[in-house]
């Protein structure tokens, strides 16, 4: 098979990408490449929300990209080839008949294969790579880590997910990890990964039509901010039960609700400046985007 290569130009761009495991499901990748970015300078992979708007999420990171010399890589999973939560947030793991797809077909490896194509194109070599996902993208990121996809990333942040896959082998995926042929060692590796749950403390709306409302989600809390706390507390209890480490952190972004632009700016400042900006810095004239 011919190696896929990606060579985005300087500035904003969008390039088609055919994943070798899903040749009939075309993707796009939105990029921002600063003029001074070199192959071992930092990379941030950004996972969009339910609107499948990788271009917006790429743009949310441009100011930080220029300030900190970051290559922004935003794989975009269009609705038609990747429909509903099952086709994106849940990684195409579960077929309509309830069967679990072969591991090679799970979507959570797609961002890593995009990075392979960038290496093949000479754009990156061995940089530190971080991954950020907001809303549906936050669901994607933490489920990627849960199923063993964290090796590529020096840091990972799940921002304002609507609900969570819990670190337990006793509940069926996507509520837990049962059915995925994972064992307690895999569970311990996920708990040991320094995952950041990034939560806006105003993400407390309970009547949002896009807030998951199935019984398993409601059992985690009435809103996204409450569910973030539930997730961390569940993980800490499970780690204690297993005698394992839990290296997760919940970081609160004060004054911010379900706002992908503001949470992206907060994530960039946290990672590259060691701070969470004030609400005045985070919300300059932006409209919230899911």
Sum up the structure in keywords.
alpha/beta; Rossmann fold; 290 residues; 30% helix; 16% strand
The total strand number stands at: 8
What is the CATH C level class, in words? Alpha Beta
Helix/strand order, N-terminal first: EEEHHEHEHEHEHHEHH
Backbone structural class? alpha/beta
Can you describe this structure?
This protein is of the alpha/beta class and 290 residues long. It has a single domain (11-282), classed as Alpha/Beta hydrolase fold, catalytic domain (Rossmann fold). The chain has nine helices and eight strands. An eight-stranded mixed sheet has the order 1-2-4-3-5-6-7-8, sandwiched between helices. Strand 5 (129-134), helix 4 and strand 6 form a beta-alpha-beta unit. The longest helix is centred in the last third of the chain and has 19 residues, at 224-242. The protein starts with 10 loop residues before the first strand and ends in an 8-residue tail after the last helix. The relative contact order is 0.13. The mean pLDDT is 95.
């Amino acid at each position: 098979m011919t190696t896929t290569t990606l060579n985005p130009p300087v500035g904003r761009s969008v390039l088609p990408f055919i994943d070798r495991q899903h040749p009939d499901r075309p993707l796009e990748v939105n990029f921002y490449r600063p003029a001074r970015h070199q192959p071992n300078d930092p990379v941030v992979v950004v996972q969009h929300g339910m609107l499948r708007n990788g271009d917006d999420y790429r743009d949310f990171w441009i100011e930080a990209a220029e300030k900190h010399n970051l290559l922004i890589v935003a794989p975009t999973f269009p609705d038609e080839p990747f429909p509903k939560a099952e086709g994106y947030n849940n990684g195409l793991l579960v077929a309509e008949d309830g069967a679990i797809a072969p591991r090679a077909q799970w979507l959570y490896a797609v961002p890593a294969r995009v990075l392979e194509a960038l290496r093949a194109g000479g754009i990156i070599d061995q940089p530190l790579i971080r991954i950020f996902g907001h809303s549906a993208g936050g669901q994607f990121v933490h489920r990627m880590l849960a199923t063993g996809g964290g090796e590529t990333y020096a840091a990972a942040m799940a921002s304002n997910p609507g609900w969570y896959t819990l670190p337990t082998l006793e509940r069926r995926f996507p509520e837990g990890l049962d059915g995925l042929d994972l064992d307690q060692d895999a569970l311990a590796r996920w708990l040991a990964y320094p995952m950041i749950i990034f939560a806006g403390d105003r993400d407390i709306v309970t009547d949002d039509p896009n807030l998951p409302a199935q019984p398993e989600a409601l059992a985690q809390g009435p809103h996204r901010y409450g569910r973030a706390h539930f997730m961390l507390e569940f993980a800490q209890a499970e780690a204690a039960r297993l005698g394992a480490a839990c290296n997760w952190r919940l970081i609160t972004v004060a004054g911010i609700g379900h706002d992908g632009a503001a949470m992206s700016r907060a994530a960039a400042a946290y990672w590259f400046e060691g701070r969470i900006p004030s609400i005045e810095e985070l919300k300059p004239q932006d409209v919230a985007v899911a």
